[in-house]
Fold:
Amino acid sequence: MKLNPDCIRSILLTAEDICDFSTPWVYDKDKEKGSFLSNYSHEEIVYHIRQCDASDLIDGVQFYEDGNTVYIGDLTPEGHSFLANIRNDTFFNKVKSIAAELGLGSLNDLTQIALNSALLVIKSHFNLP
Structure:
């Protein structure tokens, strides 16, 4: 399956919205997906949850019933950082555009583009070289 950055972002937004110290997110195929995930198929969501887990953006991930139910503990510090860098719609669209222009599509590429772009914006804001 091709990586969908929008689905990754939606998963991170959902985890941030639901999870806290004592509350995990339990994704269930047969229940309401929530507003962030309504545009994605179950297969796409589960695939991208696995990609987020493999990239250390979320933790405590456990798959049950062949992926029909997925337990997600919370965002990792890396997940929080990446989400902070792509929260703004305009900025996220620019990150995706840069990735497409450069022919880069991995999750690692997207996180690096988002981080480096955020650093450039910060430097520009403070007129730093």
About this structure: The mean pLDDT is 93. The two ends are 41 Å apart (CA to CA).
